[in-house]
Write a structure and sequence with these properties.
Length: 348
Amino acid sequence: MLDRTPMTEPIKTDVLIIGAGPCGLFAVFELGLLDMKTHLVDILDKVGGQCAELYPEKPIYDIPGIPYCTAQGLVEDLMKQIKPFGPQFHLQEMIETIEKIGDPLFRVTTDQGKVFECKVVVIAAGGGSFQPKRPPIQGIEAFEGTSVFYSVRKMEQYRGKRVLIVGGGDSALDWTLNLQPVAKSLTLLHRRSEFRAAPASVQKMLALVEQGDVSFKLGQVTTLHGEGGKLHSVTVKGADGASFEQPAEVMLPFFGLTMKLGPVADWGLNLDENLIPVDTAKFETSEARIFAVGDINTYPGKLKLILSGFHEAALMAQQAHKYVYPDKKLIFQYTTSSSSLQKKLGVK
């Protein structure tokens, strides 16, 4: 449920989760099984984190037991999974301050002036606030949101268009492969013939080039041409130094993301290269009762995989229970056999 109620008094909850991406959502599930109430705050206007914002239709193949799903599909399934626990969402808000107000409470304030009081804080903010890197092309701002896009949210909007993809990383190659069947024409432009993408994706792209289904060119975009935000072509400086004009109605520059850690850096936690070190038994930070799960944390052997974040959330919840219910003994149970857990999940 999305909470839009005006703030008069602090919102009290057992656990406040910062970030509503897949790891934050699964944390709701693990905490809910142990009777802990949660509120989630996210700077985006929707749940799902990077999965929903940057690549909702991108395929994911490494979620255990799910051979294939889209990023958005995973988010939707997680939302169904946590529905029995009634989490409250506070979107388009950013946490600004976390302060102790005695043991065991934290007071957490957003940039919109909303105040929370909680016993546990879970940081599941991915890498912080991600923003795409803007190409250094004069006047590109006039085309952003109409002809120039930094992420693909709906593939259908590119149907029948002359699409130009710029870049040589995974995103550029992935969307070359995924948009080729949809676009009227698709050109991939990269400044060199070597790529930073998965070799299998590169081979698939080259096969499409050989078949004549994709055009691959070397060079860099120097100028955009169009009116009223509508692009009709770009000028490209080729690898040989000569310039040529490339028709394009849509340009998708994939030059990577800039990570802005934001206020996390001011919360008094130990940081290691803009990541939060945690232990691997509880995934607790240098501050007791504050945990970090998902891409925002670091520890020896860390893998930045969604499934790793799910594991971290499960162990975090075990320790969080001790903080929220210090006098209550936690009895480990399985959802397959525990009637009390099944009741919480609405299993009949």
